[in-house]
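Data availability excerpt. The first of two example chains:
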Amino acid sequence: MLDETQFLNEIRNRDPHLAKLLESLIDGVNGVSNHLGVDPTGKVAPPNPHQALNVAAGTDHVDLAITDNSQVKKNIRNFVEWSVNDPAFSNPKVEDLGSSRGRTLALPAKDGNGVQIQYYFKSYSQYMGSDAQSKHTYFGTKFAPTPVTLSGNSQLTLLPSTGSGTGRPDGSQSGAGLGTVLQRPPVGPKRSPAPSLP
C-alpha cells in the first residue's frame, strides 16, 4: 500500500489542491491494489495454509474439498496438485480452482497398460501479488500422503505435467501456482555459437 503520510502534509501546506489530487490518486491505487490482491510497493503476504484437504474416490472420479477457515480476501486463488504414483510430487499436475474450494476430477483408474494408479493430492493458495503458499496441505500428511485408488476400469497413459504459471515448463516445480517470479524468460533450444571467421 502507498503511504502518503510522509509527504502529503507538507504538500497540503503549500498547495491544497495538489494535495487533494495526490490523495485521490493514492486512494485509487490502494483501492485497486486491495481488489486485485497486489501491493504497488512489493509482494503481499501469502495466504495461510488450508486446514484440510479431503478426497473422495469413485470409479473414475475424485471429489476434492478444501477446508479453509482463515481470514481471506476475495481475490484468493486455490490450487490442488495431484501426482501419479509419486508421493514426492516430482511431476505433479496442477488444478487452478480459482476462488472455489472444491472440484470433481475425472481421472483414469489405470494406466495405458492396465496397471492400477495411485494418486496423491495436496493443496495451497495464492494471491495475485504473493508467492505461492509454501506450506502445503496434504491428503494424509507431508511425510506420508494417503494414496487414492479408483475402482473403475478406465485406462489412459497420462502425459507428463507442464507445470503452471511462471514455474518451470517441465512440470518439475511443485507448488508454483501462478508463479514465484514475475516473468519467466522464453524456453527454447540453446543456440550453438556462431562459427568464427578464419
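And the second chain:
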Amino acid sequence: MLEYLSSNPATTAALLSAVATAFAAIATLFGPIVAAHLAEGLRQSNATRDERRRNRMFIFSTLMQERASIASPAAVGALNLIDVAFSDSSSVRDAWAELYAAFDTSKDVPIHVREERLRRLLREMAADLKLADGLRPDDFSRVYYPNAQAEEEYWRDLERKAAIARLAGPQASSSVAPKVPGPLPQFPPKPSELKE
C-alpha cells in the first residue's frame, strides 16, 4: 500500500484531502456542541461565583449597618450565615468563632472585647471581599446610633423583661428576666479544629 501511495502522488493527495475533509466535517459537527458545553460551564461557574460574592456582600453590609445593635434580627440572621457563605475563608470563620465565644453570657466578656471582636470580623470580611484597601480601621468603629433609637430599643427591652416576669409568675423578680440555663455550646468551631 505504501509503495502504491508513494508511486501515485495524486492518489496520496486525494486520500489526505479526504481525511482532512472528514476531520473538518467532524469538527464542524461537534465543534459547536463542545463550544456550547464549554460556554455553559463557564456561565454557570461565573453565576455561582457572582451569587457567592453577592451573598457575602449582603452579610457584610448587613453587619456593617447593624453593628450598633448586633442583636437585631437582621444582624443575627447575617451572623448565622457566615459559616456557609465564607466556608472557604478560615480567617473570617476564626474571627466569627471568637466573636461567638464572646457572646457566651456565662463568661462575662466585657462589651469592649465583643466590640473589638466584631470589628475584627468586619475587617476580615472586608479583606475577603477585597474592600479592605478602601476602608480604614476607624471606619469599622464609627457608628451612628441616635439617642431616640437607643431609647426605643431600651423601652422594648424593658417591655420584654416585664412580659417575661409576668409570665414567670410571682416567683420571678419583676425587674430581671430569667437567664437561659447553661452556657452556649462552643459552636461554630474554628476551621483549624475541624481539620483533625
